[in-house]
Design goal:
Elements: H1 4-12, H2 24-28, E1 31-36, E2 40-46, E3 52-59, H3 62-73, H4 82-93, H5 100-120, E4 126-130, H6 139-148, E5 152-153, H7 164-171, H8 183-191, E6 196-203, E7 208-215, E8 225-229, H9 243-260, E9 271-275, H10 282-292, H11 313-327
Parallel strand pairs: 1-4, 4-5, 6-9
Antiparallel strand pairs: 1-2, 2-3, 6-7, 7-8
Helix pairs in contact: 5-6, 7-11, 9-10
Amino acid sequence: MINVQEVAARRRCGLPICDECVPYESIHEPGIGFDLAASYATAAVRYHDGSRENLAKIEGDSEYNALMVRFSQSTSSPDSNLWDRLRRRTNKVLGRPATVDVGTLSNILTRLRKEAEKYSNIAITSVVVVTPNFRGIQQEDLDDAIEYAGLKSLMGTFPSRIPETQAAYAGNQFGLCINYVHPLKCEEEEENMPLEQVLAVHYSRHALSVTLAPLTKAFSFSDDQSLIDWKLGLNALSLYPNVNSYWEAVGVKIQEVPNTATGWGKRPVTKVLLLGESALDPRFLKTLQDALGGIRTTNNAAILKVTRDPLYAAAKGAAEFAKRLQEAPRNCIEPEHCRENRREPKLLVQAID
């Protein structure tokens, strides 16, 4: 039975009482996060006890890599006409990928899911998928790819996908409220979070990307200023006349975004995030540290404090978002009797037959 005074108090706070409790299974099942990086994909899990685990990494095939290059070079999302919409709908009715791009994305999602299930022995049905903030990636394509891969996106009706930078921010335990199952308490925490000027540097065998983003809470869709250079991945080292010229080019590129940024981008960098399979290469770390000396920062030494597992940082952040989206009520406050569902769980992980 719901207490009348409790109802009145919560309504004054601006949120209604939930019609239903969050199901016991949703609260206690692990959260799964997928990161579709520029040339590979990773998966991670966040368990109910707060622990996290890396599940899988797979390489992108030639179609995926070409697609991501094209996405990165687009200045805006392409418009679709009536015939495009009709073709898309027809393909879905016939059980085919809505577009060629959807087919490519769903293929890597399917492969990643299989590898993650093989490692964890968990049947994966719901995920949060994060991507680089390439303007060519259409939300509809990503949603259709997730669906075609036999998965459910936990993002639901949120207006946009979460960029890789924000996910990595969460993966490093920044911008996360403690009371996430209580919407109002979480909002209060987020209001008091400091504004950070985040420089995210993603370094892999295939590319170097640099992103500048103003962040307070991690679960956000804030603007950013960024670039990617497909000729400065670690594999390109052998193409340069000497080692020093390659690392000099990498350092110059790292400085380009923060030193040419406009508006809010002129603020000093307060946090540096590392992402990517090659981000812990000692030569790269030295180059990055040297490059930071040429941009506006508050503490160059801080780079060593945010190098936690750069390969899986974004996937871990996505898994954190997934766990919170499964547990927390949406735009309402649960009545007292719902607390029964939040008691310590029995074994609820669904194993694969």
